[in-house]
Amino acid sequence: MFKIEDDYPDLKMDDEAVIATNDDASECKRGAVLLGYWQDNYIPYFIKHNQRRAPEINRGYYARVKGVEKIIHKFLSKAGSNAQIINLGSGFDTLYWRLKDQEIKLCNFVEIDFPAVTSRKCYLIKRNKQLLQRIHEKDQEVKLSPTDIHAGPYHCIGVDLRNISELENKLHQAEVNFSYPTLFIAECVLVYIENDCVNRLLSWIATKFPKCLFIVYEMCNMNDTFGNVMLENMRARGCNLAGISSCKNLETQQARFQCNNWLGSKAWDMVSVYYSLPTSERQRIEKLEFLDEQELLIQLFQHYCVCLGWTTPEFADCDFE
């Protein structure tokens, strides 16, 4: 059995709890995929366990995955062949492989997480031929270490996002071009980091990446009874949510960018995101499972959001409207 504390004794207890959320999210995604909410041929290579979740959880993950994908494709249509994607706190996400199946070419794709997570991901990629083949570019050397992979445009690197100097060093190792159009993705990541560290990170990105779009998927509207229950559930798992003050509402989500030298920002709760998706697709997935309490789904959607920040006006309309 893999034990985080055995291999990474310097990790804080809070960090261990955050790392554990990767397995839970991956299991949720795998369960939803098995039920037919969306197609992902690669998540079974990263997670074997499947515990059936409630229908509203599956629909929530569907809205999350498809909402983020919608922004990604808008970004790629504008960014062109020099597009880079940097996925912060990527966990066992399979976005690179899914984009590869769509024959989308990227200049660079970088996944970043705690070394305790990337070491597991690197191990699983190395032992699964189907994963390794898809990152192996013709005439490109695959460079492996216990926590990092560099294979053509694909890079998986272990680094603590709170250590910006080490982050910058790792991005140089991944051959990131700071002047190229770059999409940052952070799904349920910033909420686990202290606000001053998030502010330094966002300010640094705004300074280093003049052509940048940032997608945040995170909690919002947390100052009510439903939000308090969510918080207590997370705290019971050891996640103290150091950045929760930025999740008060949509305005505080946007302010995080506005206060750190970004040109603009905008946020939508997941009710808006869900109903921006194609009607035919929503009707299809709503037939997969009977939903007893529609109100519970709406409450859940009201307490999560997508927030965008941009450093250049060309990405200001990569939205849900």
From TrEMBL:
For biological process, the GO terms are: methylation; regulation of signal transduction
User: Domain of life here?
Assistant: Eukaryota
Enzyme class, spelled out: transferase
Reactions the enzyme catalyzes? [phosphatase 2A protein]-C-terminal L-leucine + S-adenosyl-L-methionine = [phosphatase 2A protein]-C-terminal L-leucine methyl ester + S-adenosyl-L-homocysteine
Sorted alphabetically, which Pfam families does this protein's record hold? LCM
Q: Name one GO molecular function term.
A: protein C-terminal leucine carboxyl O-methyltransferase activity
User: Where does the chain bind S-adenosyl-L-methionine?
Assistant: 64, 89, 160-161, 187
User: EC?
Assistant: 2.1.1.233
Q: Name one GO cellular component term.
A: cytosol
Keywords for this protein: Methyltransferase, S-adenosyl-L-methionine, Transferase
Check the record and name the SUPFAM superfamilies matching this protein.
Answer: S-adenosyl-L-methionine-dependent methyltransferases
Family (UniProt): Belongs to the methyltransferase superfamily. LCMT family.
Role noted for this protein: Methylates the carboxyl group of the C-terminal leucine residue of protein phosphatase 2A catalytic subunits to form alpha-leucine ester residues.
What's this protein's name? Answer: Leucine carboxyl methyltransferase 1
Q: Could you read off the lineage of the organism from its UniProt record?
A: Eukaryota, Metazoa, Ecdysozoa, Arthropoda, Hexapoda
